[in-house]
Amino acid sequence: MSNYYKIDLSLTDSQVYKLAHAIHYRTPVSLKIDMNKEGHDIPILLTTRQINTINSKLNKGIGFLLKLSKTQVSKMKIGGFLPAIAAALPAIGSWLLANVAPAIATGAVGALAGAATNAIIDKAKGNGLYPIGVRGPSY
After folding, report:
1. Residue 9, Cβ density class (10 Å: 0-12 exposed, 13-18 middle, ≥19 buried)
2. Domain assignment of residue 18, given as a range
3. Which of 51, 64, 65, 92 qualifies as a cystine partner to 57, CB 3.0-4.6 A?
């Protein structure tokens, strides 16, 4: 069994969201840590080996891929890390609005445009509903 040490890492909004998702569902997660990006200081349980890797990458000034196992993530849920992540949720909400909402809106506009186009084509073909007593065009 590995010993875990609580270390604060600076995570971006999307990384906090990804970590919160992994903690909630108790799944492994990989986070690409870039030393030049600022974010939220989130406590993470790390092994000695992971801490040594982080220190060596910090000294070189390069980013790295941090892999957290299912066991690590499960320990983080038990250890009460969710409150720290919950503190960053307002920022995550703004990230979702900035990145996800436009895609949803674009899809909705596309769907409306498609429906309008279909209605125009149906009208031109003579397909559609007519009031009682009025017949559509005959071909």
Report:
1. middle
2. 5-87
3. 64
Residues 105, 118: Cα–Cα separation, whole Å = 20
Residue 9: inside a domain:
yes
pLDDT at position 125: 56
pTM to 2 decimal places: 0.56
Q: How many domains does the chain have?
A: 2
- Which two tokens mark 12? 């971006």
Check whether residue 83 and residue 45 sit in a common domain.
yes
Cβ atoms of residues 30 and 44 within 8 Å = no
Q: What whole-number distance in Å separates Cα of residue 33 and Cα of residue 36?
A: 9
Same domain, 80 and 27: yes
CA distance 50 to 68: 9
Mean pLDDT of the region 8-31: 91
Sequence-separated (6 or more) residues with CB below 8 Å from residue 72: 4, 45, 46, 47
Please, what is the average pLDDT of the chain?
75
